[in-house]
Amino acid sequence: MSGLVLKLGPHERVLINGAVIENGEKRSRLAIMTPNANILRLRDAIHPEQVTTPVRRVCYIAQLVLSGDANSKDARLQLLRGIEQLSQVLTDHDSRSLLSQATAAVLEDQHYQALKALRGLLPREERLFGTKLS
Question: Which terminus of the chain has fewer Cβ atoms in its 10 Å neighbourhood, N or C?
């Protein structure tokens, strides 16, 4: 396995195992070789005051694990319950696929992949609410 590849823009910041790392002047590409490293792009981070919808709430829980602010064992049940609740509302094929990916990732303690799948639901949620929620 080649690990996770991060493509960073100039001055983009990323949180890796609790350390904030800022890219330099030029675009770069990093290969994260350590399995189960906790990684969060800060441009993708959801701030507490933005946790105003069901999908954002579940994303935020996964994000807390990645930032080191929550234990993965403690968050697992909350994530699985949240995904189950979302699956009762988001019943289209694409949403179900993303929710299945998120569930599998949580069960494998792959919280970055879970967050990635859950973030794919944000545009659908915005359409359902009929407004931009950022």
Answer: N
* Tens-digit pLDDT string for the chain (134 aa): 457 888 999 999 999 888 999 999 999 998 988 877 888 889 889 999 999 999 999 999 999 999 889 998 999 999 999 999 999 999 999 999 999 999 999 999 989 899 999 999 999 999 888 766 55
- Cα–chain-centroid distance for residue 93? 20
Residues 61 and 82 sit within 8 Å (Cβ to Cβ): yes
Q: What pTM, to 2 d.p., does this model score?
A: 0.85
Cα separation, 96 vs 14, whole angstroms? 29
- Distance, in Å, from the CA atom of 110 to the CA atom of 120, rounded to the nearest integer, reads 16
Reduce the DSSP state of residue 19 to 3 states and report it: strand
By CB neighbour count within 10 A (0-12 exposed, 13-18 middle, 19+ buried), where does 9 fall?
exposed
Domain boundaries, the chain: 4-43, 46-129
Ramachandran area for residue 19 (φ above 0: left; ψ -120 to 50: alpha; else beta): beta
